[in-house]
Each structure stands twice: as C-alpha cells, then as structure tokens.
Amino acid sequence: MAGNGRRGAVRKASKKNVGGSGGQKRGLRGKGPTPKAEDRVYHAAHKRAKEKRRRDSGRHERKGDGTELVVGRNPVVECLHAKVPAAALIVALGTDNDERLQESVRIANSRGIPIREVPRHELDTMTGNTMHQGIGLQIPPYKYASVEDLIDSVAKTGEPGLIVCLDNITDPRNLGAVIRSVAAFGGHGVVIPERRSAAITGVAWRTSAGTAARLPVARATNMVRSLKQFQKAGYQVVGLDAGGDHTLDTYDGTTPVVVVVGSEGKGLSRLVRDTCDTIMSIPMTGWVESLNASVAAGVTLSEFARQRRAKSSQ
Questions:
Q1: Pick among 3.30.300.20, 3.40.1280.10, 3.40.140.10, 3.40.50.1370: CATH of 145-311
Q2: Confidence (pTM)
Q3: What are the start-end ranges of the E strands in 123-256?
Q4: Cα 199 to Cα 83: distance, rounded to the nearest angstrom
Q5: Which residues of 200-237 are buried (b: 16+ CB within 10 A; e: fewer)?
Q6: pLDDT digits (tens, 9 = 90+) for 153-163
Q7: Is the pLDDT of residue 58 over 70?
Q8: Which homologous superfamily does the CATH classification assign to the domain defined by 66-137?
Q9: Distance CA 171, CA 195 (A)
C-alpha cells in the first residue's frame, strides 16, 4: 500500500504554537514616558506647582454668580491699592495682625468697603481650602459693555475711534496691561471674545492699575461679526502679525481704526485674519521672533497716538 500510514488513519491538523517557549509572543505595549512629578496628582510636587499657579494668578475663586474672591494678604492689598471695586473685605476671626492686614482694613474703611469678620472655617468653605491667610476681598462681577454701545459712545466724542480687539489672549495679566496701554494712549475701548479668553478678574484689575474702571471693555459673542460691525461703522480693521501688507512705519493710524492683537504663540485665528482689512507688522531686530501681546499693542498705540498728535497740531 502506497504511503506510510495505517489503514483508516487520519492525519491530525498540526497545532499552532500560541505561547510558551519558542512560540509567537504577544508584544508588550509600553505605557509611554513617565509623567513629570508635577503632573502626578498624588505627588508633593503637584501640590507645590498648583499652589504656585494660585499665587501667580492672584489666588482668586470665582463663584457661579460671577462674584470673585481674591485671597491672600499681598493680593488683597494690591487690589485695594489699584482701587478695584470691592463688595466686602472678609477677615477670619483670630487672624494674626500684621502691617498688610492693618493696611487692608485702613484702605477699606477709607473707601467705605464693608468689613466682615467670619469664623475661619467659613472662609475655608468659601475658598475651598485653607490657603487664604485669613483675608479675602469680594469683587462684584464686571459690567461689560456691548460692541454696539462702544461704537455709539465713540461716535458721540467726534474723535476718530481707536479700539483694540484681543484674539486668543487667555492671560489676565496681558488683558490688564492692554487696558492700561489703551487708556494711556487715548484709546476708546477694548473688545474681548466671550469664550476662550481672559476676563476682567482681580488679576486683570490689578495689572490695569485701576484703568479698567474708566475704560469700557466689551464682550463679543462672535469676534468676526463684531469686526464687521466696526467696518460697517467706518473703521479700518488692522491685524498685527508678521509678514503683513504694511509695517507700523508705513500705516496711517489717524483714521478710525481697530487694532487686532493675537497671542504670542498662536497669533491671529484664521477667520479673524481673513476679516482684517490690513495685516501690519512691527519692525524689529531680525533675531527676535515676536513680541508679547500687551507690548505689541502698546508699541502700536504709542505710534498711532503720536501720528494723531502731529495731525492735530498742523
């Protein structure tokens, strides 16, 4: 009989080696790089980094109704010196008295700000932690203007409008610095997006050195639509960005103008850039890539103010 098999024998299918020594092993998936210590919530470095961010931002808590509570002795004193509108100064019972606390109480009394003494655990509850140093300043919600009101108020002055719109600016210190520059160089207002933008917080108030109390800040639900409103009202919309059609040296800033400033990292968003009538760059030393948003706004406003003074003196 041909073949080597027995009569009636059936060859069994060979088994695939699925594991064990010599078999095909499943590749182990790596877990990726180890997170930084400050990114691990259980690590002490995470708590230190979180606390540092709170200190750098002025240590404030925002409530659901828009009321803000600035805590910490230095931030509170700075807000009071900047004449930030305040609803009440809150002091925890049993707080150690020092020069900063005394100064806060003195300024609050001179400005007629109510002073409330509360049990320490109540201030703990209000802030969600115990890092308040026994003192807090309640700041009421900022009253934003509308873009329509801003256009109307500028028209009543009879002056060529000078407005700054901020795109992708999320740092309240930048916002406060821009507000201060607009006020210093005769601008008429600032426009910020309603979403994904810095707002008027205690930090912005302090950085503006109180000018936020006198310069209107409007919130735009749609920045592109708001820019088109300004264009319809006779404004030229100028975006600050590299490689523009004009430089600050060649642009006439004596007409009604809206200066649009983007973030140092992202610059202007695409739709906002496409809406601008002109893209203008600031001449700089070649090896410097960009300027901080508030610095760029200040440089531009200073030049436009110079041009306007020169024109009015002719």
A1: 3.40.1280.10
A2: 0.72
A3: 135-139, 162-167, 189-193, 217-220, 236-240, 246-247
A4: 18
A5: bbbbbbbbbbbbbeebbbbbbeebeebbebbeebebbb
A6: 999 999 999 99
A7: no
A8: Ribosomal protein L30/S12 (3.30.1330.30)
A9: 13
